[in-house]
Amino acid sequence: MEWKTILFERRGAIAIITMNRPNRFNALNADLGEELVKAVEICREDDEIRAVILTGAGAAFCSGGDLKAFQEAVGTPSQSHVFRDITKSINRLIMDLRLLPKPIIASINGSLGGAGCCLALACDLRIAADTAKFKQAYTSVGLTPDGGFTLLAGAIIGLGKASELVFLDPVLEAKQAQEIGLLHKVVSSADLPAATMEWAEKLAAGATKSYARTKALLNEVLLPLLERQLELERQGIMASSQTSDYVEGVTAFFAKRPPVFQGKSYP
Q1: Tell me, what CATH number does 110's domain have?
Q2: Is residue 236 scored above 80 in pLDDT?
């Protein structure tokens, strides 16, 4: 298959999916979302693939939704439609990552924010370069989180820390992210590919069916909540995209100035 926005590589029993929009910091758009879904489908259906790595090309893992596309839609009838469409593929992707009956590692090569955080949180294991930075990002531009963030972050790091991320929106260095439980391991940028592959090779040599059943058990409580939360988040981000704060947030982001939020419902 010919890919436009990802790279797909096989190394024995290991599949490597690389988000490949480096000039846009691997920001998620409809094409990237659809191709990631297709790549995960291949990994699920191919019995020879026993472990999966998800990573990014260039300086970022995934910066989140493509704010440039959001900016272009501001003030047009399609302002909320952009979120309606992109969240469909994001929600499908998050569910597919959790339903994949094989372990998947997020190999975080660089910065990630917004939906990029959600992709990493939906993976089973997370290893990052020491140069990686994390930012929730949604609320700083007047949006509400999507991609399961409000459930996954709380489940992984606890309600208190998740609340800190959504209300204060700090930029976390990799070591800080590890300290609060977002990451399992931090290594140097030079060592990241080898360290990730070491994990993947161990998983690929493991008891595949046991992993699949164990992941299904871990999902048993999570998935009904996640499916519901993804839809609630989808409705929430569509509604928040209709506020004056969102318009101000996106405008300020591209103007490189602090936003001045008014808390009004409509621009």
Answers
A1: 3.90.226.10
A2: yes
Element (H, E) at 118: helix 115-122
| pLDDT one-digit tens code per residue, 179-194 | 999 999 999 999 999 9
**Contact status, residue 74 vs residue 247, Cβ threshold 8 Å:** yes
Average pLDDT in the chain: 94
- Examine the pLDDT at 231 and tell me if it is beyond 80: yes
Residue 185's domain comprises 6-192
Q: Does residue 212 sit within a domain?
A: no
The residues with which 28 forms a beta bridge, in sequence order, are 65
In this prediction, residues 18-24 reach a mean pLDDT of 97
Query: Rounded distance, CA 249 to CA 141, Å?
Result: 4
Number of domains in the chain: 1
Question: Contact 61/109 with Cβ under 8 angstroms?
Answer: yes
Q: Which residues pair with 134 in a beta bridge?
A: 112, 172
CA nearest to 63, candidates 22, 17, 16, 124: 22
CA nearest neighbour of 124 among 48, 222, 42: 222
